[in-house]
Amino acid sequence: MAGPDAKGDAKGFVSLVSSGPGDPELLTLRAAARLRQAEVVLYDDLSSGPILELANPDAELVPVGKRAGRPSAKQEHVNALLVEYALAGQRVVRLKSGDAGIFGRLEEEIIALNEAGIAFEIVPGVPSAVAAAAAAQIPLTRRLTARRLQFLTGADVTGALPRDINWAAIADPATTTVVFMGQRSFPDLARGLQEHGLSGETPALFAEAVSHPHQRLIRTTIAALAEMLADAPVTQPALILYGPLAQGPDQG
Ligand SMILES: C[S@@+](CC[C@H](N)C(=O)[O-])C[C@H]1O[C@@H](n2cnc3c(N)ncnc32)[C@H](O)[C@@H]1O
């Protein structure tokens, strides 16, 4: 298996590590091992907190999330840092929330590492959507009535609802849809869904700060949630899951 032990030449090795939704118990054993071996850890806001306590105490911890500044050049800056640390021969962990491959701009980092000829691995993890369903004690699929599962971003690069949404797909009532980064745009999304035939009474689950001590789960409907979020400040990461399973298991 390729891994940081493959380090042998002057170039370092980068582990693109998924940190799960936040609770260290939801890290994979491989993620924890890479943190213990790291010489440098570049982490996002959502990967900070108790997970970082698992890092090698001698590792340099480098925040690269929004709070670290540089909003416009942020991704380029992260790419450059990854390459720079690796070229200096370091064992680098790039920690990304949930599963690194879901709405995590992983591709840009893979391209930068390939271009610089730096060896890397990807360590998969628990996506926040999967952790949210577990916290709400529901499955994400159901025979006949939820045969499709889709993940959607509620924010384009400007933070607004993406314009080129496939409305037919996301207004399909026999589907479980999970919206990431959708708190601000959900009122618009819910309006569009109803215009495309989805009932306002469709069950919805609002899952905030999943797996954190202040986790909040609210079972509601898409229409009521749109109203609730219209004036609500965004203070925590949250997901919106809608579809038949959002109201809980079918007891009948
Ligand atoms: C940039 S995306 C990264 C998603 C991540 N790669 C994943 O697999 O969960 C950030 C968004 O993921 C969701 N998210 C991440 N962690 C979360 C958590 N612990 N609770 C609720 N939502 C979370 C929120 O919608 C947040 O705005």
UniProtKB/TrEMBL annotation:
The encoding gene: cobA
Source species of the chain: Paracoccus zhejiangensis
Annotated GO biological process: methylation; siroheme biosynthetic process
Broad EC category: transferase
GO molecular function: uroporphyrin-III C-methyltransferase activity
Keywords carried by this UniProt record: Methyltransferase, Porphyrin biosynthesis, S-adenosyl-L-methionine, Transferase
InterPro entries for the chain: 4pyrrol_Mease, 4pyrrol_Methylase_sf, 4pyrrole_Mease_sub1, 4pyrrole_Mease_sub2, CobA/CysG_C, Siro_Cobalamin_biosynth, Uropor_MeTrfase_CS
Entry keyword annotation includes Mitochondrion: no
Stated family: Belongs to the precorrin methyltransferase family.
EC number per UniProt: 2.1.1.107
Domain Tetrapyrrole methylase: 14-225
Keyword Chaperone: no
Pathway connected to this protein: Porphyrin-containing compound metabolism; siroheme biosynthesis; precorrin-2 from uroporphyrinogen III: step 1/1
Protein name listed in UniProt: uroporphyrinogen-III C-methyltransferase
